[in-house]
Design goal:
This protein is α/β, with parallel strands linked by helices and 293 residues long. The protein contains 7 helices and 15 strands. The strands form 3 sheets. A 6-stranded mixed beta sheet has the order 1-2-3-6-8-9, covered by helices on one side. A 6-stranded mixed beta sheet has the order 10-11-12-13-14-15. Strands 5-4-7 form a 3-stranded antiparallel beta sheet. A hairpin with a 2-residue loop joins strand 12 and strand 13. The longest helix is centred in the first third of the chain and has 12 residues.
Length: 293
Amino acid sequence: MPAPPEIEPFHDEATSTMSYVVHGGPGTPCAVIDPVLDFDAKSGRTRTQSADRISACIDERRLRLAWILETHVHADHLTAAPLLKRRHGGQVGIGAGVVAVQRHFARVFAAEPGFPTDGSQFDRLFADGDEVALGELSARVLATPGHTPDGVGYLVGDALFAGDTLFMPDGGTARCDFPGGDAAQLYASIRRILALPETTRLFLCHDYPPASREPLVATTIACEANENVHVGGEVSEADFVAKRRARDATLPVPRLLLPALQVNIRGGRLPPVDADGRRYLRLPLNRIGRAPD
């Protein structure tokens, strides 16, 4: 039986995102999960500081990048997957439900003619139960729809990288009001996760802590099952759905949703250059979120 994976977490403070390098030790193949490309919404400029830290880890430990794994099309940060692939090689994978996400947002953002909505921007589309080889380690794909249709988690040894399903117990669960989101589906996905062994380590994609504590990257199945404020204990599906819908109705649009979705449905590539040789992001009017009071 292989040893538990070694896990290097990276916290991006600007987006509250957790990225991970997962490997079996120095000199082994590795996976990067949910990497961040820095983006300044005020200026429209990108930077690579977050990805640079991941690159430094790969180089220092002499790792071989085999996979860049996305847990879903993120609405809160731009992915650095293409950048890391150019630097280190590897393949980019995401859940097969990305096709539905692409079809919806290609219309919302009036994507250029010929924009493919078949997931071909990614090297592999994962189905539930697929296995991803990482040297002596392997990652098993768990479909976790509900937050978005393409949500997946990656189970590597005793560690589950759960994407936007569960937060720390005091933070509850992910929202379900994005297109294709469904609170009943998320409840079923979470119950499936909570059926894993209690000692399974759960690595989060985000933590939004109260002022009383610092951001954390991991919890356990036992802790979530007993203490999560949305699904801990014996919360029924009906109660969860009602609570989730009521909370979602109060939430603002994520700060980077418009740029993030346009880039992430392309697998992290920027839109094609315009006639003037520059790249532009679109700002659709009256299509996203609710009108302000």
